[in-house]
Amino acid sequence: MSDLTTLDTLVPGPLSLAGHRLGTPQRAGALTMVPISGPAYPGIVPPRSGLKLTRVAGYGRVELSNGADRGVAIVPLHIGYVQDAAQNHALCRSAFLAAGQRLMCEDACCVQESQGGYLTERDQWFFILPLELRARALELRGVSDYGKLWRDIADLNRGHGLPRRGHLEQILSRRRGLLTQYQSRLEPQPGQLGALFFIEDRFAGLELAPDPLYFTEIWAALVCFAYGVAAWHADPARDAERQPPPEPFEATGLGELRAALDRDRAARIARIADRIAAVPTGPVTVQEEERYLRLRLSTVTGTHLAGQIVTDGDRAVYASLFARP
After folding, report:
1. Which of 22, 138, 196, 305 places its Cα 20 to 30 Å from the Cα of 132?
2. Is residue 106 helix, strand or coil?
């Protein structure tokens, strides 16, 4: 783990990231991921093994449940579910669910404009809304209108050269084989519980989980869909398989090769440090949305940054913060 920098000054406002540190950057095409390690926060139910979509009770109404015997579930911001024989939905906000609790979300957005879809799998799986949709989705939290994101989804599809329809499955399914390449090319590190994401040279988002298990379970949804969609579109080669291979290191022996690798790694870390320093901050507003014992769920909104955070006092427990367009 690199001593590149601490993260406590990266994000303004009440989110303290003291004690969290950055690891060695990894890059796949236009997407760069910088691992974050730090102290785990116990007692949080992970999103795949503990949190379930139990039913869709009509357009815009989805019920989630925390099936764990103990612990509170933090619903990942902008989680969405793809399932067979039902309209696919995504949430515009995060939430708390106590052990055994069911929660009916009345302000979900349907991401499938008309009946049907392209996926045939019978098992439900979840994604996180693509970066291009997240600021708008956050603005629409609390609004009970199941079609509220269809126009934005249609614009996103058009930008990807797909029919202008409010069907997010056009990207999630047709591009799924390409998007899942990011999952294999960028590898979470032991003990990793968060990440910084950059698309080309621009800050795209900061994701922080309570513990490594939670991060492991949400990793694919983040890297393939939340950030992979924008990264794939920004990559001139579009398909990582068509990118030219990197230039080989000039070395005549193992010692020279190790030295070259060290220089390359140091240069990448220096570039990331410059990118972090250049991240626009500015003033933010923080609006508390919900409480669970000592935990506070808040919405962060700024000129360049938006998202939601969970804190215990001034300690960061969960964060999903993304760059605004």
Report:
1. 22
2. coil
